[in-house]
Amino acid sequence: MSPAWKRPKFALVVPRQSGGWLDVIPGRLQIRVHGLTMPLGVLYVATVLRASGFEAVVLDADRRRMEDEAILAWLIESEADVAGFSVLIGAHECAYRVAREYKRRRPDSLVLFGGAHATHQAARIMETYPFVDLILRGEAEESVVLLAEALDEGRSLEGIPGLCLRRPGGAVVVPPPAPFIEDLDKLPYPDRTLLGKEFYSLPIELAGRKRSVVYDPFRNTGLATIVTSRGCPYQCRFCFCGMMNRGRWRTRSPANILGEIEDLHRAGYRTFFFPEDNFMVDPQRVEAICDGLIQRKLKIHWATEGSVRAASARLLRKMKAAGCEGVFFGMESACEHVLKYYGKPIAPEQSLAAAKAAQEAGIGVVVGSFILGAPVESAEDCLRTLRFATRQAAIDLPMMGLLTMTPGDRIWNELRQQGAISDDAESRLWETPCAAADFGNDASLRATAEKCIAAAYRHFFLNPLCLGRAVRKSAVNAFHRRLTVELLRCLPGLFRALA
């Protein structure tokens, strides 16, 4: 029997990301990490709406790589009263185009924005784009239900926490973000059936001049994402999430987390990713989760992100026993003065010790993440970090990226106060991720950083020593074997792409 839905109806869209290519071999080979994981934020919002008696449907247009017209057709067919968009940098242009046209065709509908970019730049978005009726700032699971109830009952929308709106005279109201949800256990598990039969993994596309190949070790198993906590107690200078969460860290109970894992296990998932800001903040919490997985004898593989500060040998062994096969450590730099600038109270030796401890625990893949192009960094610093990242046998995959910033975040504001960023740049670039290296004193820094980033990925995909090490590790670790077999499968196509 179908539920008796109340009005209004919500149609929630994950817009298509514009993405970007990285030149690994300039003119010959590029890579794009699609990063197609489950859109849990939108699923949480849709789930709480449905639990409160409101109809909500979800479209992951990014996963389907849908063009604007197809997204628009889905929205129109949904006959939604509220068209909601999850707006992140990189997806904002698609959201604007589709929302503008939907509003033109259905002027009586409401266009609702949410997400990190909409929260951060709410006032500018409301002032610049008149087709955006409402923005929900911050965590929306509670405020979206208040919005739905007010619309259903014909009440004023003013006063709903975090809700930006326009008054009848046109004045824009921009309140602070909604308060953080303190008790995360009270939220229902996100209903992944709303995604239909969409299949999620982490494909990496390698494109030559005429051909491309996709490296996707989870192509046949799928990948479920679970968020076990929100926020992070640390305040790294470059971290947008840290700025948004203001140093607050809230967690679900181990029992609540284990219940969701069991549900997904029954649904057929065997590979999980915990995309936390910092999964390992509280080692006792992590051990409790691991103990629960071990006691339940769930045969799963999982990976997560964490700080080297908490990466003790004891904890990593317990994680391995519970099925952990991948850890992503934020190592950031091999230069202590750069780490100090970032606000990371760690040393390169500590990062290396964490990677070695993970390897000794038997964890399948150890990823070291590095950021290049800080205002205090030199070209030689970048090269030092590249050498550190690619010469350590304990680091299976060095991931590197440029330090980027957006107007209003901490590094941007600091550079503006120093006079490195003009008022004109602020007005032109408020929706554009910018490389911090473009605003420093060293004109060659960005070029050097980009060459180092490309070299790190060449090392992973094309270096015979790296491939040999991967094959040797595959002999003793089944999870690593899966990744290596997929890489070897891709090599003929990769060489054809390079031809």
Description:
This protein has about 500 residues and is an alpha/beta fold. It has two domains: about 10-25 and about 40-175, Cobalamin-binding domain (Rossmann fold); about 215-460, Aldolase class I (TIM Barrel, Alpha-Beta Barrel), CATH 3.20.20.70. The protein has 19 helices and 21 strands. The strands form five sheets. The chain has a seven-stranded mixed sheet, sandwiched between helices. A six-stranded parallel sheet has the order 12-15-16-17-18-19. Strand 16, helix 11 (about 315-320) and strand 17 (about 325-330) form a beta-alpha-beta unit. It is globular and about 65 Å long. The relative contact order is 0.09. The mean pLDDT is about 90.
Give the total of beta strands: 21
CATH superfamily (homologous) name of the largest domain = Aldolase class I
- Counting H and I runs of at least 4 residues, what is the number of helices? 19
Average the pLDDT over all residues and give the rounded result: 91
CATH top level class name of the largest domain: Alpha Beta
Strand order of the largest sheet: 4-1-5-6-7-8-9
Class by alpha and beta content: alpha/beta
Rg computed from alpha carbons, rounded to a whole number of angstroms:
23 Å
Distance between the termini: 58 Å
Major sheet description? 7 strands, mixed
CATH topology type of the largest domain: TIM Barrel
Overall geometric form: globular
